């Protein structure tokens, strides 16, 4: 369980807080889509959850433990249990699909094995299983730079899966993809979410995707939670509150 309790985040020199007194609880099984205009605080919320951004006020509790009070070692362990999926994939283009997804193990291994790129048979076997899960079993040895955007994001998802995560965090994971590919990536995330019993939290601009896949939608505006309910209840009025006007798509 992840709890944000009265979380406020100020960036240095910023006039206003990026998150303002946010109170939210996320539990296993929830597939949450976060909507909000640019600058609403969506990425900041993700960074507070995976311990990349300290909170200025309030606290983030992970299974009851205050994230800011964890030892560096435990914080690293938590980060290795949060699988991140990014808009621009954050892959290493010249490496193969398999080499990229094996980097998902780096948080769990010692630095020397990582530097030497030494992986044992069970790690390679796990990589192959994960590649099957994301439908890339034919592409193991292909260089990532030769893949399409949708295939690259499948590699991104596979790398996150290698971490055996408790949580999937997506920061606009389909913003660079066309609508049908976006839908297939959401479907993949939903399938994995259900198989692995995760907490999945995804920032997304596309209201239709949020409505189709989320079990819960959160609307952020100006650093505040202005909507938190099931997708079926999200009305045009709610969207106006979130975006300041009704989005066209
Ligand atoms: N590193 C930073 N330093 C200072 N201000 C920042 C920093 N990162 C974000 N901000 C500010 O914090 C606020 C929230 O930004 P954030 O990136 O969390 O919003 P967002 O909803 O993810 O936006 P987008 O959809 O454009 O990615 C914005 O006003 C932004 O300018």
UniProtKB/TrEMBL annotation:
The keyword Translocase applies. Signal peptide: none annotated. Keywords: ATP-binding, Cell membrane, Membrane, Nucleotide-binding, Phosphonate transport, Translocase, Transport. Residues 2-247 form the ABC transporter domain. CDD domains: ABC_PhnC_transporter. SMART domains: AAA (SM00382). The keyword Cell membrane applies. PROSITE patterns: ABC_TRANSPORTER_1 (PS00211), ABC_TRANSPORTER_2 (PS50893). Pfam families: ABC_tran. GO terms for molecular function: ABC-type phosphonate transporter activity; ATP binding; ATP hydrolysis activity. GO terms for cellular component: membrane. This is Phosphonate transport system ATP-binding protein. It comes from Alteribacillus iranensis. The lineage of its organism: Bacteria, Bacillati, Bacillota, Bacilli, Bacillales.
């Amino acid at each position: 369980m992840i709890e944000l309790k009265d979380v406020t985040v100020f960036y240095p020199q910023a006039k206003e807080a990026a998150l303002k007194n946010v109170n939210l609880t996320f539990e296993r099984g929830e597939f949450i889509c976060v909507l909000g205009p640019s600058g609403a605080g969506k990425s900041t919320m993700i960074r507070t959850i995976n311990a990349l951004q300290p909170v200025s006020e309030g606290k983030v509790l992970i299974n009851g433990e205050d994230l800011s009070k964890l030892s560096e070692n435990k914080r690293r362990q938590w980060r290795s249990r949060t699988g991140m999926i990014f808009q621009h994939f954050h892959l290493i283009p010249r490496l193969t699909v398999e080499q990229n997804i094996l980097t998902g193990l780096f948080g769990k291994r010692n630095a020397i094995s990582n530097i030497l790129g030494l992986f044992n048979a069970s790690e390679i076997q796990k990589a192959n299983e994960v590649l099957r899960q994301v439908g890339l079993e034919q592409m193991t040895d292909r260089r990532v730079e030769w893949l399409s955007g949708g295939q690259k994001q499948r590699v991104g998802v596979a790398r996150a899966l290698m971490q055996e995560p408790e949580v999937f965090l997506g920061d606009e994971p389909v913003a660079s993809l066309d609508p049908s590919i976006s839908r297939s990536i959401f479907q993949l995330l939903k399938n994995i979410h259900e198989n692995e019993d995760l907490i999945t939290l995804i920032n997304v601009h596309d209201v239709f995707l949020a409505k189709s896949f989320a079990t819960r939608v959160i609307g952020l505006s100006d650093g505040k939670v202005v909507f938190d309910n099931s997708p079926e209840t999200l009305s045009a009025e709610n969207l106006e509150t979130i975006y300041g006007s009704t989005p066209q798509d």
